[in-house]
Amino acid sequence: MKHTWPIDTATDAALARIATARLASAYGLSPLQRTRLTTALSAQLRQCLAKDGSWLLTLYVTGTAGEQAHLHVTVTAADPAAHPPWRTSVACAGTPIAEDGSLADSPEVLAESLLDADEDTAVLLDRLAEQEQLVAFHREELHQTNQGVLALHAELDAAGQAQREAFAAEHRARRQAEDARRRLTFLADASAALTSLNHDEVVRRLPELLVPEYARSVDIWLFDGDDDRRPATPHPAAAVTAARTGRPQYAALEPGELPGVDDQPPSALDPERPLLCVPLPTRRAPLGVLTLAPPGERWDPDDAVMLIEFARRASIAIDNARRFERNRDIAETLQRALLTDLPTTPALRLAARYLPATHGLNIGGDWYDAFRQPDGSLVAVIGDVTGHGLHAAVMMSQLRTALRAYAVDGSSPGTLLTRLHTFLHHLQPDLYATAVIARFHPDEPTLTWAAAGHPPPVLRTPDGQVHTLDAKPGAMLGIPLNQQIEDHTVHLPPGSTLALYTDGLVERRAQGIDPGIARLADALAAFGPAELEDLDGSADRVLDPLLSDSERDDDVCLLLCHVAQHATVERDGTRIRP
User: Fold this and answer.
1) Dist CA 561 CA 377 (whole Å)
2) How many C-beta neighbours within 10 Å does residue 472 have?
3) In the 8-state DSSP scheme, what is residue 410?
4) Largest CA distance in the chain
5) 485-521 exposure pattern, b = at least 16 Cβ within 10 A, e = fewer
6) Would you say 556 and 502 are in contact if contact means Cβ atoms under 8 Å apart?
7) Is the CB of residue 567 less than 8 Å from the CB of residue 578?
């Protein structure tokens, strides 16, 4: 059902508004909906009155059962072409509670409408008050949230700053640890590189280790004039002070403030270049001074501490190499002085070779000897004292002297070795030796020998056959064991050659000793009878192939004994041919 009202005056507009409000109330619109509808309608009617003319207000409801009903409000002008219509709609219950679209200008109706409008306004104001309280509540919550966010931001900033500081501290600690590891690695590698028994080699390696990472230049001043083979050059005053005081010195335009280092004025030789002069200490006195120029403007204090430790290790390496060289020279000199001048006989010729080790202090233990006994027999000996160096050489000389003394009574090789065993065990309980003694009888072609822990003799017979004399040997001389070393005999026809040797000739670490003995046997078998007549040349031809693969880390002895094919010997004043 449609309701229409003409609008010509303000009174008509007010009455139409009242009628609309009453109709909206009748259709069950809430106070808030009614207030919104009447307020919008009042604003539109006020605009219509301002434009003059006649207007028509139309109210109607649309909607069927089961559908949402809507209350439609339309304001149209008398001349629709001049003014477009105004329309609005609002959802409603659809069934009027008490429809009343009449316009009444009685005071009671107006008063009631006014009260209804005030009631709607009160409801709206209550809603506004609730909204204001809710807004205030949310505003307080927002304020507190903002405060919390600000506090959280402050905490996050503080946590971020703490984390950045922790990261920075961790980075510094990691960098310091890496620097420390780098320095320790350098010292370890340098110590390994300086492990040499040649002090010239140690000195040569020092600049290679330091330049260019830790020094731009290196000068090594050794106090022993024999070792400083370069032309005489002036040394910085700081180096002289370091040599005199035994303390590291730093010479530069500005103090270095390096730990454990004394500051000095710049060197007059090169005032613009800082110098670090570190003495090379030993237990007795400094060996010299190591003078370094920094790779950059100056040294890091920790690098300076490392360089001082490096100089200490280098000094120990140089000192150890020098002492080794002195001991090696003494031992070699002593051993060569003790080696025997071999006796010569027409029936038995001897040739010997001794080669000292070329690596390490491995000289002093090997020896050979040959001498006659009272009955005319000739005794050939070869031996090896455990250990090396001067002590082994001295012990070897004592064994050689004792053996010659024991042989005066004509004892057999086994008896001589048994006596040597007892002698060594009581003289040096912690030192051992190996030996082979071979005795050549003057009146019969027989060889008697005995061995004590030594590589077996190798015998070449005139027919070219080679035999290893490995009959039951005795144990090493000097071990804590009671033993009686046995004699062994073998037929020795003229033209035979016996090879006595030490383990340095045949033993290789990767292969053992058996392959070397086989190679020695092959070398002897390859000789012809004529070649063995030149026994010295044969000794050289044996050594060359056998030592071609040797590292020469042990000394070598070889004693060749060759029985002549035709020779005369003198016995009891009578010359006889064997």
Assistant:
1) 13
2) 8
3) T
4) 188
5) bbbbebebeebbbbbbbbbbbbbeeeeeeeebbebbb
6) yes
7) yes
Mean pLDDT of the chain: 85
Strand pairing report for 249-251 and 275-280: antiparallel
What is the rounded CA–CA span in Å between residue 130 and residue 383?
120
Q: In which element (H, E) is residue 530 found?
A: helix 529-533
Q: Give the residue among 337, 343, 419, 423 at the shortest CA–CA distance from 380.
A: 343
List, for residues 24-54, the tens digit of each pLDDT value: 888 888 888 888 888 888 888 888 888 878 8
Among 316, 301, 313, 306, CA closest to 185:
306
* DSSP H helices in 250-383: 301-338
Q: Determine the residue type at 74.
A: T
Q: What is the distance between the alpha carbons of residues 228 and 56, in angstroms, rounded to a whole number? A: 129
User: Pick from 496, 498, 497, 387: which is nearest to 436 by CA?
Assistant: 498
Label residues 263-283 b or e (16+ Cβ within 10 Å = b): ebebbeeeeebbbbbbbbbbe
Task: State the Cα angle at 505 between 499 and 511, rounded to 5°.
Answer: 120
Beta carbons of 23 and 59 less than 8 angstroms apart: yes
The length of the chain in residues reads: 578
Question: Which of 192, 296, 222, 307 is CA-nearest to residue 260?
Answer: 307
Higher pLDDT, 435 or 93: 435
- Please provide residue 412's backbone torsions phi and psi, each rounded to the nearest 5 degrees: -75, 165
Residue 56, strand partner residues: 6, 76
Round to whole Å and give the CA distance between 564 and 493.
9
CB atoms inside a 10 Å sphere around CB 41: 22
What single letter denotes the amino acid at residue 110? L
pLDDT band at 484 (very low <50, low <70, confident <90, very high): very high
Query: Who's near 121: CB < 8 A, 6+ residues apart?
Result: 35
d(CA 367, CA 339): 7
Dihedral sign, Cα of residue 311, residue 313, residue 314, residue 320: positive
Nearest residue to 384 via CA among 158, 559, 578, 161: 559
Q: Tell me how far apart the alpha carbons of residues 398 and 416 are, in angstroms, rounded to a whole number.
A: 14
- Report how far apart, in Å, the C-alpha atoms of 500 and of each of 206, 407, 449, 471, 556 are: 45, 19, 11, 15, 11
pLDDT (tens digit per residue) in 160-200: 898 888 888 888 888 888 988 988 999 999 989 888 878 88
User: 327 with 390: CB under 8 angstroms?
Assistant: yes
| Confidence bin at 69 (pLDDT 50/70/90) | confident
